[in-house]
Amino acid sequence: MERIVIGEYKFYQSTNNIQNKDKIVILYHGWGGTAKGYLELAEEIAQEGFVVLIPDILYHDERFPLENHFDSNVTRNYFWNTVFHTINEYNEFLRVIGVKKNSTILVGNSMGGFIANGIFAKEPEISGLANINGSGSFVLTEKIFRIRDGRDEISQAEESRLKKYDSIDKMISLSPVLLMHGDSDTIIPIEGQKNYYKYITKEEKRTNVEMEIFEKVNHEFTPKMVQKLIAWLKEIKNKKEG
Questions:
Q1: What residues contact residue 1 under an 8 Å CB cut-off, 6+ apart?
Q2: Which of these, 74, 79, 71, lies nearest to 118 by C-alpha position?
Q3: Whole-model pTM above 0.90?
Q4: Over the stretch 198-226, which tens digit does the pLDDT of each residue have?
Q5: Total structural domains in the chain?
Q6: What's the CA gap between 29 and 7, in Å, rounded?
Q7: Which end of the chain has fewer CB atoms at under 10 Å, N or C?
Q8: CATH number, domain at 51?
Q9: Domain of 119?
């Protein structure tokens, strides 16, 4: 993997020839994580013939990192702003690095799953989405966060802001979707994944959507999840080449 800086954007890249590739995986890490922490996964994906990019996310790595992401006040003040900012900058990021939307497959873990899902809901040309331990149902997940943490109910203004990015009731790509989550996740409630899966399969009547629930798994990206992700990516690649 090579470390690249173009203007304000910093990222790891598995190859220099991204313009010659029609399947580029953009990998988003979780809250308080690092791009560097996903290098091993990126190498596994790259071995299957994909170009892999791991962007630095705002308030992480070298982009104004926070001192303590897991302080409860810090999380509440910055989590959603980080998700929204990363969704908003997606098109500019692609423009700067010279990649077409229909070449990209989005993969995200935890907060990265929120980000990937939010982008996918706004950009119908994207070639695939894998959301691991995240959520595509922003309003529902925030309501559950508040109940769990004993906080006040969400205000109308806050709910309206979340709905602008929520993947529910949005135009979506018709490309394949993979949702994975541990059934014992105490950090990101699985109900958000289930609600998005229900929406995309029942309301949108999509058939190329998989949701796999991993028993007795907390908020972890397990080896079995990695295996499933790699197999899913290979299936997309084989269909493209076939």
A1: 12, 13, 14, 39, 42, 43, 52, 54
A2: 79
A3: yes
A4: 999 999 899 999 999 999 999 999 999 99
A5: 1
A6: 21
A7: C
A8: 3.40.50.1820
A9: 2-241
